[in-house]
Design a protein that fits this description.
Growth Hormone, Chain: A, mainly alpha
Length: 446
Amino acid sequence: MNLKVRLAAMNFLEFGVWGAYLTCMGNYLGVAGLGSEISWFYAIQGIVSIFMPTLMGIIADKYIQPQRLLGICHLLAGLFMFSLWFMGMSAGFGQQISNKPMFIALYTLSVAFYMPTLALANTTAFTILKNNGGDTVTDFPPIRSCGTVGFILVMWFVNCATWNNGSFGLTLSQDLHKFQYTYNQFFVSGLLSLVMFLYVFTLPPCRLAPNKTTQRKSLSETFGLDAFKLFKQRRMALFFIFSALLGMSLQVTNSFAGPFISSFQGSSDPAIATSFAASNATLLTSISQVSEAFCILLIPFFLKRYGIKGVMLIAMFAWFLRFGFFGLGNPSMPGVLLFIASCIVYGVAFDFFNVSGGIFVDRECPEKVKASAQGLFMLMTNGLGATIGTLTAGAIVNHFCAWQQVGDSTFLMGNWQACWFIFSGFALAVGITFALVFRSSHTKAE
């Protein structure tokens, strides 16, 4: 099989594992009696991202080939996911988890071993391409795009798949046995992780090039701490601060869009309660990932026309619209069009800042700390920012909304509009402040 196709399959599995539960986990947590802890489940991803990728990167550099460590991490992450599924299955359909601390601990261990695989998968693909004469600049983007495809297709599967009394089915109709509402989403994720574990050991050897320098690195250099010296520069300090502020928005919709859209099934209006969108929240939110895949192609045009600061500003105001459209919409026509618009805008909000931010770091930072600075950028956005933002959003949602029993179902219901408008107002304030205080040293032409 063509090497690039094999690497594309690897990326498909890598992100399919995540797509099985990332956007729909909140629905099941409410049923399991952990609805008030949704924000913590998503914050855990940011917390482990602060140290686990660095730790596994050092191990891959010194002791184990990256693709083998990638497989081992997936094996462990998958086994812990199966443990979550087993606990849910043992509790029974629609029943609360009895040992909630154990459930949270197992989830934390699964995520702790999964999050480093995002970087390990990139390292594996880059190394194998280089070792076999490939061009990472032209060959990797199509390979990576297959990861987004995997994420989307697994989301669609979890949205439609049902398991009821030993019978498997697929449906777009309202059905409480859909995987997006049950513990079976963890089974799908665990199964794909085990497939990934077996698959990566079929890939070519992935030996990294030996380090030709004999100079010993200090502890701070090993862990990328030298990049923190960039905070001495006003422009870089402002950039990283705003990276953290914008990062506070990253996991909000992943955490709560599913429970929010599904909550309309508890509406007293039959047209809303039985609407297609309310019954297929995971399918609807997958439009966000489709938009993400396309919007990344627009970045070169916007960078040339508006410059890095302009593109960053577009991303910040896109977050304002992302949350605002959710606050104004509903699952029936024409309100559902605002939900769709929110999902389309997400591609701009997510891609434009992450990609342009990475380019800004690459241009501004000295060569010897470029890699560390990129790590610091990820730490501020996906680590510190996302963790604080998710926990804060959870506190806001828990203040305005509560889990309520409606018929045979449990939904997170309340004043969702107030929540979304608070999130939208925050994004608008960050964007306006960024426009006023941040100055980029690069022109549009550059």
